[in-house]
Amino acid sequence: MNFELSNEHKMVQKTIREFAQNEVEPIAAEIDETERFPTENVDQMQRYKMMGVNVPKEYGGAGGDELAYAITVEELSRACATTGIICSAHTSLACWPILKYGTEEQKQKYLKPLASGEKIGAFGLTEPNAGSDAGSQETRAELKDDHYLINGTKIFITNGDEADTYIVFAMTEPDKGVKGISAFIVDRDTPGFSVGKREKKMGIKGSATTELIFENMKVPKENLLGKEGQGFKIAMKTLDGGRIGVAAQALGIAQGALDETVNYTKEREQFNRPIAKFQGLQFEMADMSTQVEAARLLVYRAAMAKAQGKPYTKEAAMAKLYASEVAMHVANKAIQLHGGYGYTKDYPVERMLRDAKITEIYEGTSEVQRMVISGDLLK
Ligand code: CAA
Asked: Which pLDDT value is given to residue 249?
């Protein structure tokens, strides 16, 4: 057992940390305020190969492993959780299923431009009536000669109106339940595809969260991902990896909120001394730091399990459950320790608390993570 990062992982951490501090952090408040998609960050992430950090070099990626991916999302989210999720959703929810289940032609055509960062990816599973109950897909796909005709609506899709390539789930055999769901790779310019409304959200405001609308959308037969009926398993395995990304995002937010609090309490003076001199605040920060470190161990363990080809469903669920709750708790405490200033937009902790909340919801709510963990315990 080794709790030290390898030199390679330390290098990833240092590079992304410097990039996040120098280029992402300075515009994080403005992205939140204007709710604009941070194209310049994505361009830079392409340059640093972050958009394919865990994709083999032969397919345009950086050739890193899942721990490198978790560290990347953590460091980006420490500065800006919007930027963290753009990278995470793209790499884990769009690149990974093509890498894992795609044919060689699909990898050449779709994975390469995604992993190199030339194109952006998204994942279309959630529907108005299929949220936590992801198996209740109402989108239908019907095989007609050389193509599938797909009809339905997806909601809450991260990178929705910025993506070029979508992994879309639809029922091909509705009477078979979850075993009748199939996965498809969908080009944005497919006839019958359109992007619906963009959500106005509490946090991660620069992340484009939209509806996707399919009206007699004609998807070529060769864009079926995996086999017919394999879609639900593809979605679940993909989300197992995505949850490591959301856990890393939550960890980054928590670390960012802790950093801000340590700096602030050393500078802010009350009763003729920096407030960091008061033991009441020291103990709060000691607890926050311990929780952040415990979350980090769970997140890195889940990432290592995936990197080493070991089971990681439960590990990812535990990491996401715990890290997201730590992010909420630590960001909330951070505001408290900043006092009135923490409640204003002059300090980033207010944004961090709003950003933290989504990590308890998307890619499976905390309740769904508890279902996954207890299911494993009781099987
Ligand atoms: N890996 C592989 N297979 C899995 C699996 C996993 N992690 N989880 C379930 N399966 C398989 C089961 O083994 C079962 O197959 P068999 O019958 O062959 O054994 C099949 O899938 C059905 O399993 P369940 O009966 O457990 O399925 P369920 O309908 O009860 O659902 C659930 C289980 C865990 C609640 C699941 O529906 C779930 O994860 N829900 C949450 C969905 C979610 O996370 N949505 C987020 C979407 S993405 C997003 O947030 C937006 C974005 O863009 C970021």
From this structure: 99
